[in-house]
Amino acid sequence: MAMNHDEATRFKQQIAREHPKLTFDVREYQGDWTVIVINPRTNESFGIVNPSDWQERLAMMQGMVPPQTNR
User: Fold this and answer.
1) Average pLDDT over residues 67-71
2) How far apart (Å, rounded) are the C-alpha atoms in residues 43 and 22?
3) N or C terminus: fewer CB in 10 A for the chain?
């Protein structure tokens, strides 16, 4: 389920408190609000459209879970 602007802003604030070394932004794309997560150390970034995606994406960013490959 996509977030509206208020939900995305609250989610951004929540994860920013938990992960102060990362940078966050909220952007709208085709009517859906996305929290952009940026690792300033590596300049790697990704978007979170649904809060349930956060833990998996964070684990991938931290290298705990290898990215899935299509073979």
Assistant:
1) 57
2) 10
3) C
